């Protein structure tokens, strides 16, 4: 049984699996919570196929610095390389 990580983590088992795979705490929490909320599916799209506004929102959610000065290509690169 997965450890209870409190109300911050919505899917404790997925969170633990992601951490074991080497994902950061932040990224594992983000993915586990998105999966639990049913909002992970749109992330399956290629980043290049998403709008700049959508990419900006994701960059904001994951805390990418300097995102307001980035163009779409830079946002794609920053999101893709975020660990």
TrEMBL record:
Q: Biased-composition ranges for Basic and acidic residues?
A: 1-29
The Rho termination factor-like N-terminal domain covers 48-80
Give GO terms for biological process.
DNA-templated transcription termination
Q: Return the annotated region ranges for Disordered.
A: 1-43
Q: Which domain of life is it from?
A: Bacteria
The molecule here is called: Rho termination factor-like N-terminal domain-containing protein
């Amino acid at each position: 049984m997965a450890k209870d990580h409190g109300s911050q983590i919505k899917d404790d088992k997925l969170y633990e699996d992601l951490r074991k795979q080497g994902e950061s705490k932040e990224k594992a929490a983000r993915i586990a919570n998105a999966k639990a909320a049913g909002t992970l599916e749109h992330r399956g799209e290629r980043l290049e196929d998403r709008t700049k506004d959508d990419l900006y929102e994701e960059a904001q959610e994951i805390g990418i610095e300097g995102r307001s000065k980035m163009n779409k290509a830079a946002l794609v690169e920053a999101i893709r390389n975020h660990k």
